[in-house]
Amino acid sequence: MQQVEDALKNEEAHRVGVAAAAAAAAASSLAPNTAAPVAFAVCTFCGKNGHTVERCFKFEDASKRAKEEVTKDTSYNSKNRRPKRKGRANAAQEKETPMESAGAASVRLSPSPSSLPNAWNADTGATSHMTPRREWFKSYGPSNVAIRVANGQVVYAAGVGTVEFTPVKDGHNLRPVLFSNVLHVPSLNQNLLSVLTLTSKHNFRVVIESNTMEFILQGLPRFYASVGAERVAFLNGNTVPQAEIASPAQDTGYELWHRRFGHISPTRLKALVEHGMVSNLSLPSVPASLPVCPACMDGKQTRDPFPQLASRRSIPLQLIHSDLHGPLPPTANGYKYWISFTDDASRYRRCWLLHKKSEAFAAFKHYKAWAEKQTGKVLKSLRDDKGGEYMSNEWESFMLEHGIERQHTTRATPQQNGVAERTNRILDEGVASLLSDSHFPARFWGEALSCFLHTLN
User: Fold this and answer.
1) Could you give phi then psi for residue 166, rounded to 5 degrees?
2) Residue pair 66/3 in contact by the 8 Å Cβ criterion
3) Burial annotation 129-160 (CB, 10 A radius, 16+ → b, else e)
């Protein structure tokens, strides 16, 4: 910057000197006898005699160097400072996220543990070792590396660590091998051993001869892979599962094993231990007083059977059981429901066809009039399931007006209305059988019901 300052000062001096020279020339033209000889001229830049600034070689050199420095500084700004600003603005776009490749592997279709693969696939397309089996890891740490599978889908690793593998050759176990930097990818459908990783990062040499791949390190074969009929190479040997993860056979409480085995009964859990059905399972003795398992109560609790009532009314119309059935395919007349009335004493049944549920009250009035006229008795009680079609204000007022007792069963408890429920089942099965035998369409269920009900009574 000092040179730039000097150059600017020299440029100013040059302008002053040129102006002075021009003034001297003008003066000499007007008064030639008074002009000073050239030998007495003094340079305003270097301070030497005998020349002026416009003829000073040092001034020309200094001006040239100053221009070069200014040009160099401008070039530096354009090449370095502007790209930095651009880089800061687009850092997120220019930075590439690392992506691993799973070669020809894809995502597992079933989350079941039984779908987990056992063998290692020696894959030349995979960029890292990968496995979905967490229990194989001897050491483990978090990882969220993205992996692209065969169909282009991107999945993510859950962790990374080392896996111990025991090679087998001619039926004999060889020296165990540790696979490092293995990605744990829970959704992967294969165990992938990256051949490229072994050769490029671990100095392995791979020899393929016939149907065998030989993995050589420092001149010694370490493990082998066999090529199958599908031209896929699988390692010969077994992966060593880690006991603290894969083998939960440790002395723990009964409650924990009860949950692990799907909430099985104490008898079955005890049989697993006594008959050796689970390897290395040691279970403490089943306690005499078992704690209540809330999950078992939610999943296994059943309702006790309802007691069978042997008593029946001895006089017709003392108690009538009723229930509504449908909707069904519309008949030719547009009926979609039927409502049944069953006498408790005689089990005599009558049905009315309905277009909609709101017609149930009218059907009941028709039944009451018919039954009382035919038997000479008075209808005293009606039992129903408290469905909406039975609970209208009009129906309630009618029952109070005629002194008929109402018996409502508990909601969602068809056992309490068993006679009416059984009637509808008998009628439904009979109608279905008649339609099947006659090959009539389902819309003829009304005619079939009338025929079957007449026969049943």
Assistant:
1) -105, 105
2) yes
3) bbbbbbbbbbebeeeebebebeeeeebebbbb
The 349-354 sheet, strands edge to edge: 349-354, 337-343, 320-325, 381-384, 405-408
From the number of C-beta atoms within 10 Å of its C-beta (0-12, 13-18, 19+), residue 36 rates as: exposed
Per-residue pLDDT tens digits for 194-222: 999 999 999 999 999 888 999 999 999 99
Check residue 104 and report its DSSP letter: T
Can you give the length of the chain in residues? 457
pLDDT score for 427: 94
Burial (CB count <10 Å: 0-12, 13-18, 19+), residue 183: buried
Give residue 297's identity as a one-letter amino acid code: M
- Phi first, then psi, for residue 114 (nearest 5°) are -70, -15
- The owner of tokens 């005619």 is 447
- Token pair, residue 208, equals 């393929």
CA 283 to mean position of chain CA atoms: 36
Which residues of the chain fall short of a pLDDT of 70?
Answer: 1-41, 44, 53, 66, 69-97, 113-114, 243-253, 282-291, 309-310
292 neighbors 404 (Cβ within 8 angstroms): no
d(CA 27, CA 73): 43
Q: Would you state the pLDDT for residue 182?
A: 94
Residue 343 pairs in a beta bridge with 320
How many CB atoms within 10 Å of residue 451? Answer: 15
pLDDT score, position 302: 78
Contacts (Cβ under 8 Å, ≥6 apart) of 432: none
CA 236 from chain centre, in angstroms, equals: 34
Backbone phi, psi, residue 163, to 5°: -130, 135
Closest to 286 in 3D by CA, of 262, 264, 269: 269
Distances (CA, A) of 253 to 265, 283, 285, 304, 419: 15, 7, 9, 31, 50
Instruction: Provide the pLDDT for residue 247.
Output: 42
Q: Using one digit for the tens of pLDDT, what is the confidence trace for 302-340?
A: 777 777 766 789 999 999 999 999 999 999 999 999 999
At a CB cut-off of 8 Å and minimum separation 6, what does 405 contact?
380, 381, 382, 399
